[in-house]
Amino acid sequence: MDLLSRRSFRVPLLIVCVASLVFSLMLAKRRAELAVLHLRQEAALTHVRDLGMKLDDIQDERMLLLSDAFTVERVARENYGFAARGEVVVPFTPTVKVEAPKLPPVRVRPDRWGCLLGDGGFPLVIPAIVFLLSFAFLRALERISDSEQALVEDAGPAPATPT
Questions:
Q1: How far apart are CA 88 and CA 93, in angstroms?
Q2: Domain assignment of residue 59, yes or no
Q3: Rounded-to-integer distance, Cα 32 and Cα 25, Å
Q4: Count of helices and strands (H, E) across the chain
Q5: What is the model's pLDDT at position 54?
Q6: Is there a contact between 5 and 107 (Cβ–Cβ < 8 Å)?
Q7: How many distinct structural domains can be found in the chain?
Q8: 17 CB-near residues (< 8 Å, 6+ apart)
Q9: Closest CA to 4 of 137, 156, 154, 151
Q10: Could you write out the DSSP letters of every residue in 11-42?
Q11: What are phi and psi of 142, to 5 degrees?
Q12: Does residue 107 lie in a domain region?
């Protein structure tokens, strides 16, 4: 079998395209899992930082409550309804609830290399590129092979050499 024959390149083309497709799909799946894990890690780290700041605030408030007489009086008045002699306590409950504004979700734009390598919803880019390049290369080889075969046919039979 001739190495440059048309038939010999079809099987390797098919093998390369299938292998690149399988590899690309596996790569895209792993990258998607990795992206989810990174998002979960960032959320967990943010939560830990928030809890640390909340703990610091609570510890500061505790120290303030234990050390300042005016703060102790304010907490007694606000939280427990205590009043000094001669004062009248009027209960007040606000009726308007103020909610924090909701921020729009942050949309992360994938970078160009990420799109090319399978991030962001294009997991079939690599197999498509491999297929197109292989197809173009094989078409060029077929044309070269056809032109060589046409030259051989035009030349006719080779003259016999005298012995």
A1: 16
A2: yes
A3: 11
A4: 4, 0
A5: 94
A6: no
A7: 1
A8: 127, 130, 131, 134
A9: 137
A10: HHHHHHHHHHHHHHHHHHHHHHHHHHHHHHHH
A11: -65, -40
A12: no
* Structural domain range at position 54: 14-86+117-147
The SS3 of residue 104 is: coil
Please list the ranges in the chain whose pLDDT falls under 70: 1-10, 98, 103, 106-124, 155-163
**How far from 60 is each of 49, 72, 89, 124, CA to CA, in Å?**
17, 14, 29, 55
Q: What pLDDT does residue 63 have?
A: 86
Convert the pLDDT of each residue in 10-43 to its tens digit.
677 778 778 887 887 788 788 888 888 899 999 9
Q: Does residue 95 lie within any of the structural domains? A: no
Position 92 in a domain? no
Q: Report the amino acid identity of residue 125.
A: V
Predicted local confidence at residue 1, as pLDDT? 43
Q: What size, in residues, is the chain?
A: 163
